[in-house]
Specification:
With about 130 residues, the chain is mainly alpha-helical. It contains 6 helices and no strands. Helix 3 runs antiparallel to helix 4 and helix 3 packs antiparallel against helix 6. The N and C termini lie close together (about 10 Å).
């Protein structure tokens, strides 16, 4: 499965590094990088919420991560746009002007969509 490959527990020759090499060769790294960035955002935001939510520098770091993810992967003109359909992209972009960065759950439909694309467009030909 994709999860096994990304967790590096799939049997040889289906290692994570082999799959990453294949994805790189196919020029689709943004499809893997996007969910990884969302995961980092999720972990960082939750960490700050638990320990240091009132620290303006920490809040700004969350905002910066949000802006990088949206600007790079979600915005149709971003440097690493993942090509989300409008009905998935729209709700994320509608949170752009909020002062407080939104909950990471806002990315769930986009991550689900990207994993579906990875399964169909990359994993099946790889295997």
């Amino acid at each position: 499965t994709l999860a096994d490959i990304l967790s590096n527990i799939a049997p040889p020759p289906y290692s994570r590094s082999s799959f990453l090499g294949y994805v790189y060769q196919e020029k689709c790294m943004e499809l893997l990088l996007f969910p990884m960035e969302v995961d980092r955002y999720w972990k960082h935001r939750n960490s700050v919420l638990k320990r240091d939510w009132y620290n303006p520098i920490r809040k700004r770091s969350i905002r910066n991560m949000w802006e990088v993810i949206v600007g790079s992967y979600i915005d149709p003109h971003g440097s690493r746009t993942v090509g989300l359909p409008r009905n998935v992209r729209g709700p994320i972009l509608s949170h752009q002007n909020q002062i407080t960065p939104p909950s990471p759950e806002i990315f769930d439909p986009a991550v689900d969509f990207i994993y579906d694309v990875i399964q169909k467009k990359l994993l099946i030909p790889y295997i």
